[in-house]
UniProtKB/TrEMBL annotation, chains A, B:
UniProt name for this protein: D-lactate dehydrogenase (cytochrome)
Organism: Paramylibacter kogurei
Annotated GO MF terms: D-lactate dehydrogenase (cytochrome) activity; D-lactate dehydrogenase (NAD+) activity; FAD binding
EC number: 1.1.2.4
SUPFAM superfamilies: FAD-binding/transporter-associated domain-like, FAD-linked oxidases, C-terminal domain
Phylogenetic placement of the source organism: Bacteria, Pseudomonadati, Pseudomonadota, Alphaproteobacteria, Rhodobacterales
């Protein structure tokens, strides 16, 4: 490894856009979770796929680690350069390459954020539905197989990425997939790259499927006497095939947090936040079905957000749940869990989690993309209290173990990064060593986001 | 390679179920397309995953090629043991392992066919929607990433396989994926195996997502003055997001063939065959929307198949299109193409194909899963006329080249097998060598369905 020589050669390619300024290094050493500050040795602000290829070739020559960076919203430290080296920052590769209106797809550079993309699409009648909450980049969402509130209807990134351009570990540029809706031509390299967290190749262009903007949209909240009633409502809605666009559980403690943070006055019991997309008649039919199901399980009256601004305020409040939760204990930070289980196991999983959190003496409000069996507890901890952090990690660990025991996964959508490495053997068994075999085949020098996802040494 | 020693050891494990009888070898040397008869050296009628693992370990010891066999309906010679060795026949591993009603999923052995599965599911209120026409096994459909008439609504096998059990090339047994609806835990080994055609591992169990049986189902056909009008109807329906369950184009010549074969009396112009799934109100709304779109493009009145038997007869006629087409020229065989293009390119692609077929003096009726941009021409050839076969291959080749030129794929659903190997470099570029890298990593001895999918030597 000779990072200094790599930096010198990269500077010859990028000039000023290869930075070793402390402010740039510091910015790319941060993360949104509790992982330690880890700055890179240099940051490359690339502007083209060819530049990425040139940088990778130089890094391959000097065994210099490479970590891609979107906008830094990941929650498991994916973009922290834990072995040093260069961070490739995609903020200057943030353009739409081409919109294909008739085909309902679009080619974009990795640095565009989902909100930027949807702003550009507004006049086309199309939109990109995946919404992880954070205004993440499309590159980052692809690399972590993101999903979020709308996955119950529209799927995750694996279902919405049609094709990719990828720079391999030796600098070669490949294209995976096509713009056709389906193909049986060979191994599914597209879906191998989706969720690979920068460890198999560097994504430099993404072709996304788009949806037509729905003719009608309606959102409502509904309160429940307890979490189980809310979850049972969701299970029945899923079983009946209601094509609901969003159905989010927010537990009583999180309602309190959101009320405080977003100045709302919801009754402090568990709620479902729902959104319906379709024709006017379709939205009406879905709403009636959901009213009938919620009634069966003791849900209250629907409170509708009929205007766009009201609806945006509702989802903004939902998306601000993390800072809202932290507001319950000023000065505390949040340790976020990301369990996903078969939906039949969901009510028990959440109930067990709530009990464990309470027994541990922690505050840990819960919300979830319950239509997918995915939920998050935000375990509030004093960053200066190692005992409390250890207690929270114990709770998170037991949640993960219980998820695996019922056929679930330790991460529904946040990804592996640094935080979930320790569960990979338990979740995948020998499959984890197959992942390492693939990593060795595609990145024999282990320069692409090294130290993440697999054990290759 | 020492196949004889491998056979002796496999016989010790399986007894009579390791067959070298000529009738068994001959049966597994056939295919539904025009590829040459290629029998294996032995056939293993396995009954458990452990037996598959034992067989693979013996084959690894002696470098003996292994080819999995479902029910032999593939159209590109996937299951032909072109390097000899043992064929693993899954007909005795054809059970449902467990149905999870609440979770809408099911675990099955690979040898169960889709019709057997749906017969077993009938009383549960659930069904498995993917319908490639042939009564293929779920293992074969998974291995070839099958799709068919319902993919426009329900997706392909890649969208409906949640998890797999796989025997690796060294005999280890792994599980990929979970029964949870989504996961971000590592490389997507499930979707790497889906469509890998037995070259990366041997699938021994499949967890499938299921759908609720729709409350209402309706089917109709509609005639059009020309193919372009029918295709433009489909493009608009897709753009408007009509959740149609099936929308199939059948061209005028294929209508004639189906009329003859299935004793029907449709007017001999291009048709769309449609099916609607949903609530009563939803099906009504979809039908009205489709009537309005078809009217706009010159479509005739809808002819409804309201009774279940009528509907079954309609789709049976559609599924029998291949023998129907061959009936146009008794004694001829069919060379089937499988182009898939972005939907904006579909009308031109089909028009160019029709012209090329006519100019070549061939008969080649066309039908297609047009909602996905996927269509098939059945080029009728005299198997004893090498010039005619060469002419047909020329037409198929130009169809493939035009598909690639507009961002499509040479195979929408049939897979690579023997027939599409020659296009892999053109479709994937350096991505094809990445596929070979993965193959070498997972099957270093090249014993799993060798000679298919990638070039490793």
């Amino acid at each position: 490894m000779n990072i200094d020589k790599a930096i010198t050669e990269m500077q010859a390619v990028l000039g000023d856009r290869l930075s070793t300024k402390k402010s740039d290094l510091d910015f790319h050493g941060q993360n949104e979770a509790y992982y330690p500050f880890t700055p890179p040795d240099a940051v490359a602000f690339v502007q083209s796929t060819q530049e990425v290829s040139d940088i990778v070739k130089i890094c391959a020559k000097y065994d210099c680690p490479i970590t891609p960076w979107g906008v830094g919203t990941s929650l498991e430290g994916h973009a922290l350069p834990i072995k040093g080296g260069v961070t490739i920052d995609f903020s200057q590769m943030n353009k739409i390459v081409e919109i294909y209106n008739e085909d309902l797809n679009v080619r974009v550079q990795p640095g565009i954020t989902r909100e930027e993309l949807n702003a550009e699409l507004r006049t086309t009648g199309l939109f990109f539905p995946i919404d992880p909450g954070a205004n993440a980049t499309i590159g980052g969402m692809t690399a972590t197989r993101a999903s979020g509130t709308t996955a119950v209807r529209y799927g995750t990134m694996k279902d919405n990425v049609l094709a990719l351009e990828v720079v391999l570990a030796d600098g070669r540029i490949i294209r995976t997939g096509t713009r056709a809706k389906k193909s049986s031509a060979g191994y599914d390299l597209t879906r191998l790259m989706v969720g690979s967290e920068g460890t198999l190749g560097i994504i430099t262009e993404i072709t996304l499927a788009l949806q037509g903007q729905p003719e009608a949209t309606a959102a409502a909240i509904c309160d429940f006497p307890d979490v189980e009633s809310a979850v049972n409502t969701v299970i029945m809605a899923v079983q009946m095939g209601v094509p609901i666009a969003r159905i989010e559980l927010v537990d009583a403690m999180m309602i309190r947090a959101i009320n405080n943070y977003s100045k709302l006055d919801m009754v402090e019991t568990p709620h479902l936040f729902m959104e319906f997309h379709g024709s006017e008649a379709g939205v009406g039919e879905q709403s009636e079905t959901m009213k009938s199901i919620t009634g069966e399980f003791g849900g209250g009256a629907f409170q509708w957000s009929t205007k766009v601004e009201e609806r945006n305020r509702l989802w903004a409040a939902r998306h601000n749940a993390y800072p809202a939760a932290r507001g319950l204990k000023p000065g505390f930070t949040g340790l976020t869990t990301d369990i996903c289980v078969p939906i039949s196991q969901l009510a028990k999983a959440i109930g067990d989690s709530e009990k464990d959190i309470a027994d541990s003496g922690l505050l840990g409000p819960i919300l979830g993309h319950v239509g997918d069996g995915n939920y998050h507890a935000t375990l509030l901890v004093d960053p200066n209290d190692p005992d409390m952090i250890a207690t929270a990690k114990g709770v998170a660990h037991r949640m993960a173990e219980r998820a695996l025991a019922v056929g679930g996964t330790v991460t529904g959508e946040h990804g592996v990064g640094i935080g979930k490495m320790k569960y990979m053997a338990a979740e995948h068994g020998d499959g984890w060593s197959v992942m390492a075999d693939i990593k060795r085949a595609l990145d024999p020098q282990n320069i692409l986001n090294p130290g993440k996802m697999v054990q290759v040494n």
